[in-house]
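Help! Submission page says 'invalid entity' but I think these are all valid:
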Amino acid sequence: SAVISQKPSRDICQRGTSLTIQCQVDSQVTMMFWYRQQPGQSLTLIATANQGSEATYESGFVIDKFPISRPNLTFSTLTVSNMSPEDSSIYLCSVVTWRENTGELFFGEGSRLTVL
Amino acid sequence: GQNIDQPTEMTATEGAIVQINCTYQTSGFNGLFWYQQHAGEAPTFLSYNVLDGLEEKGRFSSFLSRSKGYSYLLLKELQMKDSASYLCAVMDSNYQLIWGAGTKLIIKP
């Protein structure tokens, strides 16, 4: 299993500012994912962050808006830049671990952002 | 395109059994996940199926038929705390997860 610590758990931000979300895993993992979940919606993948390479962004998400760092196998950050009210959402980091051909996706506790 | 379908909402009675279905069309298949998510919380892992058949874990069971692109999550002896959204997700050939919109399960006394 993997334990993921994510912070901040919640924040209220002003329009035009940027916020960095941190994700710390208690074990080394190759792939880390960043998701966004807007109220009443399912999960939307923002990007996949692999250690030592550039993050891979999904359609509709760009690096200038959501820069990601992945300095090592246990840590990643997602920055939400130049925020607008439309960025108000829960942001989740997650990792996949494999054990005996069984996969499991673990989530951090989530960061609930409200942009005024 | 890739697609995951599951019912939007279901209602069941405490103590009863409920089955939540999930059908999928993806480019490749590396397993299907079921997650439970209570409002305002992160999803928690319930099950992973990569082979056909039924996997049982206590009150929860998950079934997979790869030939039919179909899975279900079976919840027995329902409790009020089972009221939550249940998310179906398929990992495609690129190890990317495709998520369903989730099924909101309402348990009534």
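Support: the input was valid. A stray whitespace character was the problem, and the output above is from the cleaned input. Chain B touches chain A through 22 residues (CB under 8 Å).
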